[in-house]
Amino acid sequence: MTSQWEPITVLAAKVQAGEAKAVDLVERALTTIQKKQEFDVVIALAAQRARERATEIDAKVAAGESVGRLAGVPFIAKDNFLTFGSETTAASNILKGFEAPYQATAIERLEAEGAVCVAKANLDAFAHGSSTENSDFMVTKNPHNKTKVPGGSSGGSAAAVILDMAPFALGTDTGGSIRLPAAFCGAVGLKPTYGLVSRSGVVAMASSTDVIGPLTRTVEDTAAVLDVIAGRDELDSTTIDRDKNPYVDLGGHVAGKKVGVIKEYMTDGLDKEVKKQVEVAIDKLRAAGAEVTEVSLPSLSLALACYYIIMPAEVSSNLSRYDGQRYGFSHPDAKSLDDSYNWSRSEGFGKEAKRRIMIGTYVLSSGYYDAYYNKAQKLRTKLINELNDAFKKVDFLIGPTAPSTAFAIGANVKDPLQMYLTDIMTVGANLTGIPAISIPAGMVQNMPVGLQLMAPQRRDRALLELALGTEKILG
């Protein structure tokens, strides 16, 4: 394996001081991507643009000009972020060949601080999945074992970081799509508070739960990226104000913090070995001075069912724009408008996208709206109220990120319900809009285990504080 990258702030400081060249960092990233092609992580390279930007940064340093907080640091974007220098496909045939007319706000903010996008990472098409097996182009392999999945939908982003293709990657999290790959690959994955990072220029999945966040090797690197991409954006009306203090100002103390272990996550459905690792981590937190108690959220057991009604409804609405008329794949043999709609969508969309469109259209249809969608939204409100009550007693919540370690490629492909169950411990944070982070918590049979920490809305910096302290304790 390639040697690990130094911390993001160290790399940037070296470039700023002229002790390292941005062009060398970019070449290192591109070389590593090339060497590790067998993991099927990258959909497209942005090599030419990356080299040009790195050359510009080095020229500015030589001229004594300012180059930004992330000067010369290479990164990889999930391929549902609009970027220049390569196609944006969302891993779907329906967008093959699409070149973005503008860039996502998160990409623009990173580039303004000198970061360099070198490639686009594989994902489940349109971010629909938990294993990165639903990509129309390739199946990404887990960095620890090529026969296992990397998690999804940001599986390419998580794998890229652990394979040292770049110091950090961007992902999206609609129901666990950053945290699950982080857990399966052994990375740190943050889902910020809903609205903290602009969604402008990111291919929409379910707009009321979509969140953008970083995947890195350490909590400090995660904080460095969040500090650049967080905050209001006039192009996304759902964005919220960032913390007044920088997200990189972290003490990392856990003593005195009130932490609630989620009772519903520590049941028989949890793999016994994973449960042991999580319990060891909780014991270490307790020994370090955290006040640990058990917390019950009775509606949490229904969160997955709730999510798989609301999310497909929003998917159905968002994917209606891919009609073969304005952009994306348009069937060349269509002789009428109806044919164009039918043939373009039937060939362009994969099985999982079709499944979610059909479920979503059904739950929104006349006669079923009240029976399904309306009830799911009421349950969502109940879940928010339960969480608010829990956060009156504790500062943070803790539990496993996933019920097991990474499963074998192909194991759940023919059983969509089993695949959906992979999200059972992550969807709650998306439905309620709270920040959540997955950090590595040991190994089971040579595969990583993820520990999930959650905080109330807008308490992202406090969550990073606890995560940093926990990371130090776990070593």
Structure, described:
This protein is α/β, with parallel strands linked by helices and 475 residues long. The chain has a domain at 8-229: Amidase signature (AS) enzymes, CATH 3.90.1300. Helices cover 38% and strands 13% of the residues. It contains 15 helices and 11 strands. It has an 11-stranded mixed beta sheet, sandwiched between helices. α9 packs across α12 (369-393). The longest helix has 25 residues, at 369-393. The radius of gyration is 21 Å and the shape is globular. The protein starts with 7 loop residues before the first helix and ends with a helix.
Structural class: alpha/beta
For the record, give the distance between the C-alpha atoms at the N and C termini, rounded to a whole number. Answer: 21 Å
Q: Mind telling me the CATH superfamily name of one domain? A: Amidase signature (AS) domain
Radius of gyration equals 21 Å
Helical percent range? Answer: 25-40%
Q: What fold name goes in the CATH topology slot of one domain?
A: Amidase signature (AS) enzymes
* Global mean pLDDT: 96
Order of helices and strands: HHEHEHEHEHEEHEHEHHHHEHHEEH
Question: Which shape, going by the Cα principal axes?
Answer: globular
CATH class of one domain: Alpha Beta
The unreliable regions are: none
Number of strands: 11
Beta content comes to: 5-15%
Largest sheet: 11 strands, mixed
Identify the strand order in the major beta sheet. Answer: 1-3-2-4-6-5-10-11-9-7-8
